[in-house]
Amino acid sequence: MKFEVTILGSGSATPTLERNPTSQYIYLNERHFLIDCGEGTQMQLRRNKIKFQKISHIFISHLHGDHYLGLVGLISSFHLLGRKNELHVFGPAPLKDLIFSHLKASKTYLKYPLFVKEVDTNASSILFEDKVVKVSSFPLKHRIPCVGFRVDEKERELNVKKEAIEKYNLGVEQIKLAKEGKDILLNNGQIVSNKLVTSEPPKPRSYSFCSDTMFAPEIVSFIENSTALYHEATFLDGMKQRAKQTFHSTAKQAAEIAKMANVNQLYLGHFSARYKETDLFLEEAKQVFSDTHVVFDNMCFQIV
Amino acid sequence: MKFEVTILGSGSATPTLERNPTSQYIYLNERHFLIDCGEGTQMQLRRNKIKFQKISHIFISHLHGDHYLGLVGLISSFHLLGRKNELHVFGPAPLKDLIFSHLKASKTYLKYPLFVKEVDTNASSILFEDKVVKVSSFPLKHRIPCVGFRVDEKERELNVKKEAIEKYNLGVEQIKLAKEGKDILLNNGQIVSNKLVTSEPPKPRSYSFCSDTMFAPEIVSFIENSTALYHEATFLDGMKQRAKQTFHSTAKQAAEIAKMANVNQLYLGHFSARYKETDLFLEEAKQVFSDTHVVFDNMCFQIV
Protein backbone atom coordinates (compact mmCIF):
# COMPACT_ATOMS: atom_id res chain seq x y z
CA MET A 1 0.00 0.00 0.00
CA LYS A 2 1.45 3.29 -1.11
CA PHE A 3 2.22 5.88 1.59
CA GLU A 4 3.60 8.92 -0.19
CA VAL A 5 4.35 12.57 0.56
CA THR A 6 4.45 15.22 -2.18
CA ILE A 7 6.12 18.50 -1.30
CA LEU A 8 4.04 21.32 -2.78
CA GLY A 9 5.92 24.09 -1.00
CA SER A 10 9.17 23.92 0.93
CA GLY A 11 10.01 27.57 1.56
CA SER A 12 9.52 29.80 4.55
CA ALA A 13 7.81 33.12 5.26
CA THR A 14 8.83 34.90 2.07
CA PRO A 15 8.32 32.59 -0.88
CA THR A 16 10.86 32.57 -3.70
CA LEU A 17 10.55 31.42 -7.30
CA GLU A 18 12.18 28.14 -6.28
CA ARG A 19 10.25 27.51 -3.08
CA ASN A 20 6.54 28.02 -2.55
CA PRO A 21 5.28 28.44 1.01
CA THR A 22 4.57 25.27 3.00
CA SER A 23 2.15 22.62 1.79
CA GLN A 24 2.34 18.83 1.58
CA TYR A 25 0.02 16.30 0.00
CA ILE A 26 -0.19 12.95 1.78
CA TYR A 27 -1.48 9.83 0.08
CA LEU A 28 -2.06 6.64 2.02
CA ASN A 29 -4.13 3.81 0.56
CA GLU A 30 -6.88 5.92 -1.04
CA ARG A 31 -6.79 8.53 1.72
CA HIS A 32 -5.91 12.02 0.46
CA PHE A 33 -4.78 14.67 2.91
CA LEU A 34 -3.24 18.09 2.70
CA ILE A 35 -1.01 19.42 5.45
CA ASP A 36 -0.69 23.21 5.44
CA CYS A 37 -1.83 25.24 2.49
CA GLY A 38 0.37 28.24 1.72
CA GLU A 39 -0.41 30.70 -1.06
CA GLY A 40 -0.19 28.98 -4.44
CA THR A 41 -1.08 25.50 -3.19
CA GLN A 42 -3.86 25.07 -5.75
CA MET A 43 -1.41 25.87 -8.56
CA GLN A 44 1.10 23.42 -7.10
CA LEU A 45 -1.55 20.70 -6.89
CA ARG A 46 -2.22 21.25 -10.59
CA ARG A 47 1.47 21.30 -11.42
CA ASN A 48 1.86 17.94 -9.67
CA LYS A 49 -1.24 16.57 -11.43
CA ILE A 50 -2.93 15.69 -8.16
CA LYS A 51 -6.67 15.10 -8.45
CA PHE A 52 -7.42 17.65 -5.83
CA GLN A 53 -11.14 17.03 -5.43
CA LYS A 54 -10.14 13.77 -3.74
CA ILE A 55 -8.57 15.65 -0.83
CA SER A 56 -10.96 15.07 2.07
CA HIS A 57 -9.04 16.52 5.03
CA ILE A 58 -6.84 19.58 5.29
CA PHE A 59 -4.71 20.09 8.40
CA ILE A 60 -3.38 23.59 9.10
CA SER A 61 -0.55 23.83 11.63
CA HIS A 62 -0.87 27.55 12.45
CA LEU A 63 -2.03 30.88 11.15
CA HIS A 64 1.15 32.39 9.80
CA GLY A 65 0.36 33.35 6.22
CA ASP A 66 2.92 31.04 4.64
CA HIS A 67 1.05 28.03 6.08
CA TYR A 68 -2.58 28.79 5.18
CA LEU A 69 -3.09 31.71 2.78
CA GLY A 70 -3.86 29.35 -0.10
CA LEU A 71 -6.75 27.77 1.76
CA VAL A 72 -9.61 30.11 0.83
CA GLY A 73 -8.62 30.01 -2.84
CA LEU A 74 -8.57 26.22 -2.77
CA ILE A 75 -11.95 26.03 -0.98
CA SER A 76 -13.39 28.38 -3.64
CA SER A 77 -11.91 26.42 -6.52
CA PHE A 78 -13.34 23.17 -5.12
CA HIS A 79 -16.74 24.89 -5.22
CA LEU A 80 -16.36 26.39 -8.70
CA LEU A 81 -15.24 23.05 -10.09
CA GLY A 82 -18.43 21.39 -8.86
CA ARG A 83 -17.31 19.57 -5.71
CA LYS A 84 -20.04 17.64 -3.92
CA ASN A 85 -18.07 15.62 -1.33
CA GLU A 86 -17.40 16.77 2.21
CA LEU A 87 -14.28 18.71 3.11
CA HIS A 88 -12.91 18.70 6.65
CA VAL A 89 -10.50 21.42 7.68
CA PHE A 90 -8.61 21.46 10.97
CA GLY A 91 -6.50 24.28 12.39
CA PRO A 92 -6.06 26.66 15.31
CA ALA A 93 -8.67 29.35 16.09
CA PRO A 94 -9.74 31.71 14.60
CA LEU A 95 -9.40 29.73 11.36
CA LYS A 96 -13.14 29.18 11.10
CA ASP A 97 -13.93 32.89 11.36
CA LEU A 98 -11.25 33.77 8.82
CA ILE A 99 -12.57 31.29 6.26
CA PHE A 100 -16.20 32.21 6.67
CA SER A 101 -15.48 35.98 6.59
CA HIS A 102 -13.95 35.50 3.15
CA LEU A 103 -16.81 33.37 1.90
CA LYS A 104 -19.31 35.93 3.20
CA ALA A 105 -17.48 38.87 1.59
CA SER A 106 -17.48 37.13 -1.78
CA LYS A 107 -21.06 35.87 -1.31
CA THR A 108 -19.85 32.34 -1.98
CA TYR A 109 -22.45 29.74 -1.02
CA LEU A 110 -20.57 26.46 -1.18
CA LYS A 111 -22.19 23.59 -3.05
CA TYR A 112 -20.44 21.05 -0.84
CA PRO A 113 -20.36 20.49 2.93
CA LEU A 114 -17.42 22.23 4.60
CA PHE A 115 -16.59 21.41 8.22
CA VAL A 116 -13.98 23.51 9.98
CA LYS A 117 -12.83 22.24 13.34
CA GLU A 118 -10.56 24.25 15.54
CA VAL A 119 -7.69 22.30 17.07
CA ASP A 120 -6.55 22.29 20.69
CA THR A 121 -3.08 23.80 20.52
CA ASN A 122 -2.17 22.87 24.11
CA ALA A 123 -2.60 19.10 24.02
CA SER A 124 -2.44 16.19 21.64
CA SER A 125 -5.69 15.13 20.01
CA ILE A 126 -6.94 12.68 17.41
CA LEU A 127 -8.33 14.58 14.42
CA PHE A 128 -9.27 11.73 12.10
CA GLU A 129 -9.41 7.97 12.34
CA ASP A 130 -10.70 5.16 10.18
CA LYS A 131 -9.67 1.53 9.69
CA VAL A 132 -6.57 2.48 7.71
CA VAL A 133 -5.17 5.61 9.27
CA LYS A 134 -5.15 7.88 12.29
CA VAL A 135 -4.16 11.54 12.18
CA SER A 136 -3.34 13.33 15.41
CA SER A 137 -2.06 16.76 16.35
CA PHE A 138 0.35 17.81 19.08
CA PRO A 139 1.62 21.17 20.34
CA LEU A 140 4.71 22.75 18.83
CA LYS A 141 6.58 25.67 20.35
CA HIS A 142 6.23 28.67 18.06
CA ARG A 143 5.53 32.41 18.22
CA ILE A 144 1.78 31.82 17.86
CA PRO A 145 -0.26 28.69 18.72
CA CYS A 146 0.95 25.93 16.43
CA VAL A 147 0.55 22.18 16.14
CA GLY A 148 2.37 19.38 14.41
CA PHE A 149 0.65 16.36 12.88
CA ARG A 150 1.31 12.65 12.98
CA VAL A 151 -0.17 10.31 10.36
CA ASP A 152 -0.21 6.71 11.60
CA GLU A 153 -1.01 3.75 9.46
CA LYS A 154 -3.14 1.31 11.46
CA GLU A 155 -2.03 -2.25 12.25
CA ARG A 156 -3.00 -4.31 9.25
CA GLU A 157 -4.77 -7.70 9.42
CA LEU A 158 -2.73 -10.89 9.27
CA ASN A 159 -1.72 -11.89 5.78
CA VAL A 160 -3.26 -15.25 4.72
CA LYS A 161 -0.68 -17.14 2.66
CA LYS A 162 -1.67 -18.04 -0.89
CA GLU A 163 -0.18 -21.51 -0.64
CA ALA A 164 -2.19 -22.20 2.55
CA ILE A 165 -5.43 -21.15 0.83
CA GLU A 166 -4.70 -23.66 -1.93
CA LYS A 167 -3.43 -26.42 0.31
CA TYR A 168 -6.40 -26.33 2.68
CA ASN A 169 -8.91 -25.15 0.07
CA LEU A 170 -9.98 -22.22 2.32
CA GLY A 171 -13.26 -20.42 1.65
CA VAL A 172 -14.11 -16.73 2.16
CA GLU A 173 -15.36 -17.21 5.72
CA GLN A 174 -12.29 -19.24 6.73
CA ILE A 175 -9.94 -16.61 5.26
CA LYS A 176 -11.77 -13.91 7.21
CA LEU A 177 -11.32 -15.83 10.49
CA ALA A 178 -7.66 -16.48 9.68
CA LYS A 179 -7.07 -12.75 9.16
CA GLU A 180 -8.53 -12.18 12.61
CA GLY A 181 -5.94 -14.57 14.07
CA LYS A 182 -8.25 -17.49 14.67
CA ASP A 183 -7.41 -21.16 14.15
CA ILE A 184 -9.29 -22.72 11.23
CA LEU A 185 -11.75 -25.59 11.30
CA LEU A 186 -11.43 -27.35 7.95
CA ASN A 187 -14.33 -29.02 6.12
CA ASN A 188 -12.91 -32.45 7.08
CA GLY A 189 -13.10 -31.55 10.78
CA GLN A 190 -9.34 -30.98 11.18
CA ILE A 191 -8.21 -27.83 13.05
CA VAL A 192 -5.27 -25.91 11.58
CA SER A 193 -3.31 -23.53 13.76
CA ASN A 194 -3.52 -19.89 12.61
CA LYS A 195 0.27 -19.68 12.45
CA LEU A 196 0.33 -22.28 9.68
CA VAL A 197 -1.86 -20.24 7.33
CA THR A 198 -0.87 -16.62 8.07
CA SER A 199 2.17 -14.37 8.07
CA GLU A 200 2.73 -11.13 9.94
CA PRO A 201 1.63 -7.99 8.02
CA PRO A 202 4.23 -5.26 7.38
CA LYS A 203 4.91 -3.02 10.36
CA PRO A 204 2.63 0.05 10.35
CA ARG A 205 4.32 3.18 9.03
CA SER A 206 4.00 6.73 10.28
CA TYR A 207 4.84 10.25 9.20
CA SER A 208 5.27 13.19 11.55
CA PHE A 209 5.23 16.81 10.48
CA CYS A 210 6.67 19.71 12.50
CA SER A 211 6.00 22.84 10.50
CA ASP A 212 7.37 25.72 12.58
CA THR A 213 8.92 25.20 15.98
CA MET A 214 11.88 26.13 18.08
CA PHE A 215 14.06 23.32 19.46
CA ALA A 216 11.59 21.55 21.74
CA PRO A 217 12.52 18.15 23.27
CA GLU A 218 9.00 18.03 24.75
CA ILE A 219 7.63 17.12 21.30
CA VAL A 220 9.70 13.93 21.18
CA SER A 221 7.06 11.82 22.93
CA PHE A 222 4.54 12.67 20.19
CA ILE A 223 6.75 11.85 17.23
CA GLU A 224 8.84 8.99 18.57
CA ASN A 225 9.42 5.95 16.39
CA SER A 226 7.93 7.66 13.35
CA THR A 227 9.05 6.07 10.11
CA ALA A 228 9.73 9.52 8.69
CA LEU A 229 9.86 12.93 10.32
CA TYR A 230 9.58 16.26 8.55
CA HIS A 231 11.07 18.95 10.77
CA GLU A 232 11.58 22.59 9.90
CA ALA A 233 15.14 23.85 9.63
CA THR A 234 14.83 27.56 8.96
CA PHE A 235 18.44 28.33 9.85
CA LEU A 236 21.91 26.85 10.02
CA ASP A 237 23.40 26.44 13.48
CA GLY A 238 25.52 29.55 13.10
CA MET A 239 22.26 31.47 13.47
CA LYS A 240 20.89 29.55 16.45
CA GLN A 241 20.33 32.75 18.41
CA ARG A 242 18.22 34.11 15.58
CA ALA A 243 16.41 30.75 15.45
CA LYS A 244 15.59 31.01 19.14
CA GLN A 245 14.39 34.61 18.87
CA THR A 246 12.08 33.77 15.98
CA PHE A 247 10.92 30.43 17.44
CA HIS A 248 12.50 28.41 14.67
CA SER A 249 15.05 25.58 14.52
CA THR A 250 18.43 24.98 12.97
CA ALA A 251 19.32 21.93 10.89
CA LYS A 252 21.40 20.58 13.76
CA GLN A 253 18.54 20.98 16.23
CA ALA A 254 16.13 19.20 13.88
CA ALA A 255 18.61 16.33 13.67
CA GLU A 256 18.88 16.18 17.45
CA ILE A 257 15.10 15.88 17.69
CA ALA A 258 15.13 13.11 15.06
CA LYS A 259 17.77 11.23 17.03
CA MET A 260 15.95 11.59 20.35
CA ALA A 261 12.70 10.47 18.72
CA ASN A 262 14.33 7.41 17.17
CA VAL A 263 12.78 7.99 13.74
CA ASN A 264 14.02 6.22 10.60
CA GLN A 265 14.37 9.18 8.24
CA LEU A 266 14.50 12.92 8.69
CA TYR A 267 13.31 15.41 6.05
CA LEU A 268 14.28 19.07 6.41
CA GLY A 269 12.46 22.06 4.89
CA HIS A 270 11.23 25.64 5.51
CA PHE A 271 14.66 27.08 4.72
CA SER A 272 15.04 30.82 5.13
CA ALA A 273 15.13 32.60 1.77
CA ARG A 274 18.56 33.98 2.73
CA TYR A 275 20.13 30.59 1.92
CA LYS A 276 20.54 29.88 -1.79
CA GLU A 277 21.84 26.32 -1.32
CA THR A 278 20.88 23.54 1.07
CA ASP A 279 24.11 21.52 1.06
CA LEU A 280 25.16 22.94 4.41
CA PHE A 281 21.82 22.01 5.99
CA LEU A 282 22.36 18.41 4.95
CA GLU A 283 25.97 18.39 6.08
CA GLU A 284 25.14 19.90 9.47
CA ALA A 285 22.22 17.57 10.17
CA LYS A 286 24.00 14.42 8.99
CA GLN A 287 26.67 14.90 11.63
CA VAL A 288 23.96 14.18 14.19
CA PHE A 289 21.49 12.03 12.24
CA SER A 290 22.75 10.27 9.14
CA ASP A 291 19.51 9.41 7.30
CA THR A 292 18.63 13.06 6.60
CA HIS A 293 17.22 14.51 3.38
CA VAL A 294 16.33 18.04 2.29
CA VAL A 295 13.02 18.64 0.57
CA PHE A 296 12.32 20.76 -2.49
CA ASP A 297 9.17 21.75 -4.35
CA ASN A 298 7.50 19.02 -6.43
CA MET A 299 9.57 16.31 -4.74
CA CYS A 300 7.83 13.11 -3.76
CA PHE A 301 8.96 10.47 -1.29
CA GLN A 302 7.66 7.15 -0.02
CA ILE A 303 7.24 6.29 3.64
CA VAL A 304 8.81 2.81 3.86
CA MET B 1 7.68 59.19 -19.92
CA LYS B 2 6.97 55.48 -19.73
CA PHE B 3 3.38 54.41 -19.05
CA GLU B 4 3.38 50.62 -18.94
CA VAL B 5 1.09 47.80 -17.86
CA THR B 6 2.43 44.36 -16.85
CA ILE B 7 -0.08 41.54 -16.75
CA LEU B 8 0.66 39.42 -13.67
CA GLY B 9 -2.50 37.34 -13.94
CA SER B 10 -4.98 37.09 -16.78
CA GLY B 11 -7.20 34.19 -15.77
CA SER B 12 -10.58 34.00 -14.13
CA ALA B 13 -12.06 32.38 -11.02
CA THR B 14 -10.23 29.07 -11.27
CA PRO B 15 -6.58 29.71 -12.06
CA THR B 16 -4.76 27.42 -14.47
CA LEU B 17 -1.05 26.76 -14.92
CA GLU B 18 -1.09 29.18 -17.85
CA ARG B 19 -3.15 31.95 -16.26
CA ASN B 20 -2.84 33.23 -12.73
CA PRO B 21 -5.79 35.08 -11.22
CA THR B 22 -6.11 38.81 -11.96
CA SER B 23 -3.37 41.28 -11.14
CA GLN B 24 -1.75 44.10 -13.09
CA TYR B 25 1.24 46.27 -12.31
CA ILE B 26 1.06 49.83 -13.61
CA TYR B 27 4.12 52.01 -14.02
CA LEU B 28 3.81 55.68 -14.90
CA ASN B 29 6.77 58.03 -14.48
CA GLU B 30 8.06 56.70 -11.16
CA ARG B 31 4.58 55.89 -9.85
CA HIS B 32 4.09 52.19 -9.07
CA PHE B 33 0.60 50.81 -8.69
CA LEU B 34 -0.97 47.40 -8.45
CA ILE B 35 -4.51 46.76 -9.66
CA ASP B 36 -6.07 43.64 -8.15
CA CYS B 37 -3.96 41.09 -6.35
CA GLY B 38 -5.06 37.48 -6.94
CA GLU B 39 -3.37 34.55 -5.25
CA GLY B 40 0.22 34.23 -6.43
CA THR B 41 0.74 37.92 -7.21
CA GLN B 42 3.89 38.15 -5.10
CA MET B 43 5.40 35.25 -7.04
CA GLN B 44 4.41 36.87 -10.32
CA LEU B 45 5.99 40.16 -9.25
CA ARG B 46 9.22 38.25 -8.62
CA ARG B 47 8.96 36.38 -11.89
CA ASN B 48 8.63 39.70 -13.72
CA LYS B 49 11.53 41.18 -11.73
CA ILE B 50 9.46 44.07 -10.46
CA LYS B 51 10.92 45.88 -7.45
CA PHE B 52 7.82 45.37 -5.43
CA GLN B 53 8.67 47.51 -2.43
CA LYS B 54 8.20 50.48 -4.76
CA ILE B 55 4.50 49.77 -5.09
CA SER B 56 2.80 52.51 -3.11
CA HIS B 57 -0.87 51.99 -3.95
CA ILE B 58 -2.90 48.83 -4.45
CA PHE B 59 -6.39 49.05 -5.91
CA ILE B 60 -8.74 46.10 -5.41
CA SER B 61 -11.81 45.98 -7.64
CA HIS B 62 -13.90 43.56 -5.59
CA LEU B 63 -13.76 40.77 -3.07
CA HIS B 64 -14.02 37.70 -5.25
CA GLY B 65 -11.03 35.57 -4.29
CA ASP B 66 -9.41 35.65 -7.72
CA HIS B 67 -8.99 39.42 -7.39
CA TYR B 68 -7.55 39.82 -3.88
CA LEU B 69 -6.44 36.59 -2.19
CA GLY B 70 -2.77 37.42 -2.79
CA LEU B 71 -3.04 40.68 -0.87
CA VAL B 72 -2.38 39.51 2.70
CA GLY B 73 0.63 37.47 1.57
CA LEU B 74 2.05 40.49 -0.24
CA ILE B 75 1.44 42.79 2.74
CA SER B 76 3.25 40.25 4.97
CA SER B 77 6.16 39.86 2.59
CA PHE B 78 6.57 43.66 2.39
CA HIS B 79 6.88 43.58 6.18
CA LEU B 80 9.26 40.62 6.36
CA LEU B 81 11.49 42.18 3.73
CA GLY B 82 11.90 45.32 5.84
CA ARG B 83 9.55 47.80 4.19
CA LYS B 84 9.45 51.23 5.78
CA ASN B 85 7.45 53.26 3.24
CA GLU B 86 3.69 53.74 3.39
CA LEU B 87 1.32 51.42 1.60
CA HIS B 88 -2.15 52.54 0.57
CA VAL B 89 -4.75 49.93 -0.22
CA PHE B 90 -8.18 50.70 -1.69
CA GLY B 91 -11.09 48.33 -2.15
CA PRO B 92 -14.71 47.63 -1.26
CA ALA B 93 -15.77 46.89 2.34
CA PRO B 94 -15.10 44.73 4.33
CA LEU B 95 -11.55 44.65 2.90
CA LYS B 96 -10.13 46.44 5.91
CA ASP B 97 -11.61 43.93 8.37
CA LEU B 98 -10.41 40.99 6.30
CA ILE B 99 -6.83 42.27 6.15
CA PHE B 100 -6.60 43.15 9.82
CA SER B 101 -8.21 39.86 10.94
CA HIS B 102 -5.40 38.02 9.18
CA LEU B 103 -2.69 40.25 10.63
CA LYS B 104 -4.18 39.82 14.09
CA ALA B 105 -4.41 36.02 13.79
CA SER B 106 -0.75 35.82 12.79
CA LYS B 107 0.27 38.45 15.37
CA THR B 108 1.93 40.44 12.62
CA TYR B 109 2.79 43.97 13.74
CA LEU B 110 3.74 45.74 10.53
CA LYS B 111 6.93 47.76 10.51
CA TYR B 112 5.52 50.13 7.88
CA PRO B 113 2.39 52.31 7.78
CA LEU B 114 -0.53 50.56 6.09
CA PHE B 115 -3.63 52.57 5.18
CA VAL B 116 -6.69 50.72 3.96
CA LYS B 117 -9.45 52.85 2.51
CA GLU B 118 -12.78 51.39 1.58
CA VAL B 119 -14.10 52.54 -1.76
CA ASP B 120 -17.59 53.81 -2.58
CA THR B 121 -18.96 51.18 -4.94
CA ASN B 122 -21.99 53.24 -5.98
CA ALA B 123 -20.33 56.35 -7.38
CA SER B 124 -17.12 57.47 -9.01
CA SER B 125 -14.42 58.83 -6.73
CA ILE B 126 -10.84 60.02 -6.92
CA LEU B 127 -8.57 57.68 -4.96
CA PHE B 128 -5.17 59.20 -5.58
CA GLU B 129 -3.87 62.35 -7.20
CA ASP B 130 -0.52 64.07 -7.51
CA LYS B 131 1.06 66.29 -10.14
CA VAL B 132 1.64 63.40 -12.54
CA VAL B 133 -1.35 61.11 -12.23
CA LYS B 134 -4.92 60.73 -11.03
CA VAL B 135 -6.50 57.38 -10.19
CA SER B 136 -10.28 57.16 -9.90
CA SER B 137 -12.80 54.39 -9.35
CA PHE B 138 -16.24 53.90 -10.85
CA PRO B 139 -19.01 51.33 -10.32
CA LEU B 140 -19.12 48.17 -12.40
CA LYS B 141 -22.09 45.85 -12.61
CA HIS B 142 -21.16 42.55 -11.02
CA ARG B 143 -22.57 39.94 -8.64
CA ILE B 144 -21.06 41.69 -5.62
CA PRO B 145 -20.05 45.36 -5.23
CA CYS B 146 -17.27 46.01 -7.73
CA VAL B 147 -15.43 49.00 -9.14
CA GLY B 148 -13.29 49.69 -12.18
CA PHE B 149 -10.28 52.02 -12.13
CA ARG B 150 -9.08 54.76 -14.45
CA VAL B 151 -5.48 55.96 -14.38
CA ASP B 152 -5.15 59.40 -15.97
CA GLU B 153 -1.87 61.05 -16.75
CA LYS B 154 -2.11 64.74 -15.89
CA GLU B 155 -1.70 67.50 -18.50
CA ARG B 156 2.00 68.10 -18.75
CA GLU B 157 3.63 71.54 -18.77
CA LEU B 158 4.49 73.21 -22.05
CA ASN B 159 7.70 71.98 -23.58
CA VAL B 160 10.36 74.73 -23.82
CA LYS B 161 12.27 74.30 -27.07
CA LYS B 162 16.01 73.71 -26.76
CA GLU B 163 16.77 76.01 -29.66
CA ALA B 164 14.74 78.83 -28.05
CA ILE B 165 16.68 78.44 -24.78
CA GLU B 166 19.91 78.86 -26.72
CA LYS B 167 18.69 81.66 -29.01
CA TYR B 168 17.32 83.85 -26.20
CA ASN B 169 19.80 82.63 -23.56
CA LEU B 170 16.94 81.76 -21.17
CA GLY B 171 17.64 81.28 -17.45
CA VAL B 172 15.95 78.89 -15.01
CA GLU B 173 13.31 81.41 -13.92
CA GLN B 174 12.45 82.32 -17.52
CA ILE B 175 12.11 78.65 -18.47
CA LYS B 176 9.80 78.11 -15.51
CA LEU B 177 7.56 80.99 -16.63
CA ALA B 178 7.59 79.74 -20.21
CA LYS B 179 6.43 76.29 -19.04
CA GLU B 180 3.52 78.00 -17.31
CA GLY B 181 2.52 79.61 -20.63
CA LYS B 182 3.73 83.11 -19.89
CA ASP B 183 5.44 85.45 -22.34
CA ILE B 184 9.10 86.07 -21.55
CA LEU B 185 10.82 89.35 -20.70
CA LEU B 186 14.38 89.06 -21.97
CA ASN B 187 17.37 90.62 -20.22
CA ASN B 188 17.53 93.26 -23.00
CA GLY B 189 13.94 94.36 -22.27
CA GLN B 190 12.43 92.61 -25.29
CA ILE B 191 9.23 90.55 -24.78
CA VAL B 192 9.04 87.21 -26.58
CA SER B 193 5.67 85.56 -27.11
CA ASN B 194 5.28 82.22 -25.30
CA LYS B 195 4.37 80.55 -28.58
CA LEU B 196 7.82 81.27 -29.98
CA VAL B 197 9.63 79.39 -27.22
CA THR B 198 7.32 76.48 -26.41
CA SER B 199 5.66 73.53 -28.06
CA GLU B 200 2.59 71.61 -26.94
CA PRO B 201 3.31 68.63 -24.64
CA PRO B 202 2.11 65.17 -25.70
CA LYS B 203 -1.57 64.54 -25.11
CA PRO B 204 -2.18 62.97 -21.66
CA ARG B 205 -2.68 59.23 -21.75
CA SER B 206 -5.09 57.13 -19.75
CA TYR B 207 -5.75 53.50 -18.90
CA SER B 208 -9.09 52.10 -17.77
CA PHE B 209 -9.55 48.76 -16.10
CA CYS B 210 -12.86 46.86 -15.91
CA SER B 211 -12.16 43.70 -13.95
CA ASP B 212 -15.47 41.86 -13.71
CA THR B 213 -18.68 43.26 -15.13
CA MET B 214 -21.68 42.35 -17.19
CA PHE B 215 -22.36 44.37 -20.36
CA ALA B 216 -23.01 47.81 -18.86
CA PRO B 217 -23.25 50.83 -21.18
CA GLU B 218 -23.60 53.02 -18.07
CA ILE B 219 -19.84 52.64 -17.47
CA VAL B 220 -19.02 54.29 -20.79
CA SER B 221 -19.06 57.84 -19.36
CA PHE B 222 -16.31 56.86 -16.90
CA ILE B 223 -13.96 55.26 -19.39
CA GLU B 224 -14.57 57.32 -22.50
CA ASN B 225 -11.61 58.49 -24.57
CA SER B 226 -9.20 56.29 -22.60
CA THR B 227 -6.02 55.60 -24.52
CA ALA B 228 -6.31 51.93 -23.58
CA LEU B 229 -9.11 49.94 -22.02
CA TYR B 230 -8.78 46.58 -20.30
CA HIS B 231 -12.19 44.91 -20.23
CA GLU B 232 -13.00 41.42 -19.02
CA ALA B 233 -14.20 38.90 -21.60
CA THR B 234 -14.99 35.78 -19.63
CA PHE B 235 -17.03 34.20 -22.43
CA LEU B 236 -17.53 34.10 -26.18
CA ASP B 237 -20.79 35.47 -27.48
CA GLY B 238 -22.27 31.99 -27.93
CA MET B 239 -22.48 31.94 -24.12
CA LYS B 240 -23.98 35.38 -23.65
CA GLN B 241 -26.84 34.00 -21.55
CA ARG B 242 -24.30 32.41 -19.20
CA ALA B 243 -22.39 35.71 -19.19
CA LYS B 244 -25.51 37.57 -18.13
CA GLN B 245 -26.38 35.06 -15.42
CA THR B 246 -22.90 35.26 -13.92
CA PHE B 247 -22.55 39.05 -14.37
CA HIS B 248 -19.73 38.71 -16.87
CA SER B 249 -19.16 39.88 -20.44
CA THR B 250 -18.46 38.32 -23.79
CA ALA B 251 -15.65 39.41 -26.13
CA LYS B 252 -18.20 41.02 -28.43
CA GLN B 253 -19.78 42.97 -25.58
CA ALA B 254 -16.38 44.21 -24.41
CA ALA B 255 -15.71 45.42 -27.95
CA GLU B 256 -19.05 47.21 -28.05
CA ILE B 257 -18.15 49.04 -24.84
CA ALA B 258 -14.74 49.98 -26.31
CA LYS B 259 -16.45 51.36 -29.41
CA MET B 260 -19.02 53.34 -27.46
CA ALA B 261 -16.30 54.73 -25.20
CA ASN B 262 -14.15 55.78 -28.17
CA VAL B 263 -10.96 54.32 -26.72
CA ASN B 264 -7.83 53.75 -28.81
CA GLN B 265 -6.99 50.18 -27.86
CA LEU B 266 -8.89 47.37 -26.20
CA TYR B 267 -7.23 44.63 -24.14
CA LEU B 268 -9.24 41.52 -23.25
CA GLY B 269 -8.62 39.16 -20.32
CA HIS B 270 -10.24 37.09 -17.55
CA PHE B 271 -11.01 34.25 -19.93
CA SER B 272 -12.96 31.33 -18.51
CA ALA B 273 -10.72 28.30 -17.94
CA ARG B 274 -13.03 26.32 -20.29
CA TYR B 275 -11.37 28.01 -23.29
CA LYS B 276 -7.95 26.68 -24.17
CA GLU B 277 -7.30 29.21 -26.96
CA THR B 278 -8.05 32.91 -27.28
CA ASP B 279 -8.11 33.25 -31.08
CA LEU B 280 -11.88 33.30 -31.17
CA PHE B 281 -12.02 36.07 -28.56
CA LEU B 282 -9.84 38.21 -30.77
CA GLU B 283 -11.77 37.37 -33.92
CA GLU B 284 -15.14 38.07 -32.30
CA ALA B 285 -14.07 41.39 -30.75
CA LYS B 286 -12.27 42.64 -33.87
CA GLN B 287 -15.49 42.47 -35.86
CA VAL B 288 -16.73 45.29 -33.64
CA PHE B 289 -13.53 47.03 -32.58
CA SER B 290 -10.42 46.49 -34.69
CA ASP B 291 -7.62 47.55 -32.34
CA THR B 292 -8.18 44.68 -29.91
CA HIS B 293 -5.56 42.56 -28.15
CA VAL B 294 -5.74 39.60 -25.79
CA VAL B 295 -3.59 39.60 -22.67
CA PHE B 296 -1.54 36.77 -21.22
CA ASP B 297 0.53 36.33 -18.07
CA ASN B 298 3.87 38.17 -18.00
CA MET B 299 2.91 40.30 -21.01
CA CYS B 300 3.77 43.97 -20.91
CA PHE B 301 2.32 46.78 -23.01
CA GLN B 302 2.86 50.51 -23.36
CA ILE B 303 0.08 53.08 -23.18
CA VAL B 304 0.83 55.34 -26.16
Notable traits:
27% strand; 7-stranded mixed sheet; homodimer; 304 residues; 11 helices; globular; Metallo-beta-lactamase, Chain A; alpha/beta
What does the model show?
2 copies of one chain form a homodimer. By secondary structure, the first copy, chain A, is an alpha/beta fold. The first copy, chain A, has 2 domains: 3-156 and 202-302, Ribonuclease Z/Hydroxyacylglutathione hydrolase-like (Metallo-beta-lactamase, Chain A, 4-Layer Sandwich); 159-199, no CATH class. Chain A is built from 11 helices and 18 strands. The termini of chain A are close together. The mean pLDDT of chain A is 96. The interface between A and B is large, with 37 and 37 residues.
Task: Draw up the topology in text.
Two copies of one chain form a homodimer.
Chain A: E1 3-9, E2 23-28, E3 31-37, H1 41-47, E4 57-59, H2 65-68, H3 71-80, E5 87-91, H4 95-105, E6 114-118, E7 125-129, E8 133-139, E9 147-153, E10 159-160, H5 162-168, H6 172-179, E11 184-185, E12 191-192, H7 194-197, E13 198-199, E14 206-210, H8 220-223, E15 228-232, H9 240-245, H10 251-260, E16 265-269, H11 279-286, E17 292-294, E18 300-302
Parallel strand pairs in A: 3-4, 4-5, 5-6, 14-15, 15-16, 16-17
Antiparallel strand pairs in A: 1-2, 1-18, 2-3, 7-8, 8-9, 9-14, 10-13, 11-12
Helix pairs in contact in A: 10-11
